Amino acid sequence: MPSIKNPIQSVANIAEQLHTCAQAAIHKAPHDGAIKATREQFGLETKYVDLFIQFIGATNIPKMDVLGTADPYFHARLDHKLLYVSSVQCNTLTPVWNETWQVKNVPTSAALSVVLRDKDEGALTDDFIGKFETTVYPGTKEVEIQGPVGLRHSKRGTFWLKIESSPSRGDPNLLPYLFDGPIHYSRHSSPTVGALTKLRDDRLYSTWKIYIKGIPQIFGEQVQPWNRKYAAAQTIFQGPTSLAVRSGIQAGHRMLYARTVKNGFGVIQSSKDVINLLHGGTHRSSADGTVSYAHRIKPAVYTYIISTDDESLRFSETGAAFFVDFASKHALHSNCAESVRYSGEFHPRPVGGWKDFSDNLQDDEVNWELVIDNNSGTYSPDPAILPKVKEIIELNFFGFQVVALPHDDPELKASVDACRAYALSKRGVTEHELQPHVTEGEETLSHRVLMGIPPGS
C-alpha cells in the first residue's frame, strides 16, 4: 500500500531473510527425502491422500505501515513442491479469503507452509508479515502466525484454515502433488495504463494468468526449449549482451504480473466464465456516440505461453502496447524461461467462423470455440504436441471446443484474417491496434524498465 514505510518493518524483512538463509543451510537435505529414507529404513509404507484445503482468513494481523493498515496476501506450499498464491485483500487487519485448493496424491507426512506478506504498491518488495507451518491432517485449524525470529512481538496474528482429506486412488507414486483445482485466474493491468491520455480498451493493457490442471498427466516431462535458430531468441539467451537483454525483459515481466490491489481475481467453473474472460472492446463513432462491447466476446488474437515454473497459462492480446521495444512477446510472458510447456497464439470464434457471424446474434445464442496454434518464433514448439495442448485447454475451459492448428496451416491464416477483419469492420478496432503500438501520451513499459520505476507505481 502507498504509505510511509515503517523502519522497524524493514529490519523485520532483513531478519526474515537471514533466518530463511540459515534454515536453508541447516535443512539442506530435502524434507521429503529424509522422510522417505526413514520409511525405507523401517519398512514403512507411504500413504497418500487427496486434499481439499480451505484458506478461511486471518485475525489480528499487525499494521504494516506508519499510516494505513495492511493489504495482505499469502503463498502456500506443500513440501516445496506445489505453490498456491492468494488474492490481495485490501486495507484490512482481518482478511477473509475463503479460497480453496485441491491437491491429489499428497503424502500424509507432508507439511503445509504459508507465508503472509503485505502488498506495497510501488515498492520493489512486499513486507513480510509472518509465516507458519502445519500438517495436512484433516480438521479446522487455528494457527499462530510467527513473525521474524529474534524480534519482539513475534506473534503476528492467527490464521484459520480447514483441511479435508480422503485416500488417494490409483498409483500416487507416479504423479504426486497433483493440482486438481479450482482453476483460479488473475487479471493484471499494465502499469502503462495510468500514463494514457485516451484509453480505448483497457484489455490492450492487461495480462492474464490462469493456474491450470492436468499438465503432468498430459505433458509428462515434455518441454519446449528456446529456438536456437531464431535471431530474436539468440539475443535473449546467448551472447555477451544477452544478460542485459534478459534483465530488461524480466523487469518488464515483474511489472506486468505484479500482485497488486488492482488485480482482478476469479475462478473458472463453466464455459460462461471463459466467455467473460474474452469480453471487451468499445467502438467510438462521431455519429452514434460510443457503443460498448464490454459484454461481447472480442474478436482478438492472443499471445500465450504455458509455463514450466508454476504450470500457469499466461496471455495477453497480441496487439498489446507493452510489447513495444521488447525482443520477444513470448519471452516477456515466460519471464525469459529457457523452456516452456508450450507457446503460440489463440483466438476465439463462433463455430463456423467470424465471416458468417453477425452482432445481431447474442453471444449465448451461438457456440464458441478457441483456435490455438504454435506460432512462436522464440520457442518454436513442436506441432505434433498440439493435440495435447487441445486436451489441456478443453480440460480447463469447461464446455469450450478447441481447434488446434499448426502455424503454417492455411485454415489458421484464414481464421485469423476473418477475426481481425470483423474487429476492423464491426467493432471499431483500428489497424495499428492489431500490432504492438504506442498511443500518443503513453509511457511505454520499456521506458519504465529503463528508468527503474517499481511495479505498481
Automatic annotation (TrEMBL):
InterPro entries listed in its UniProt record: C2_dom, C2_domain_sf
Tell me where in this chain the C2 domain is found.
Answer: 31-153
One GO BP: positive regulation of gene expression
Pfam family name, one: C2
From the UniProt record, list the coiled-coil ranges. Answer: none
The UniProt entry, under PANTHER family, shows: C2 DOMAIN-CONTAINING PROTEIN (PTHR47800), FER-1-LIKE PROTEIN 6 (PTHR47800:SF5)
Protein name, per record: C2 domain-containing protein
State the species of origin.
Answer: Paxillus rubicundulus Ve08.2h10
Q: Source taxonomy lineage? A: Eukaryota, Fungi, Dikarya, Basidiomycota, Agaricomycotina
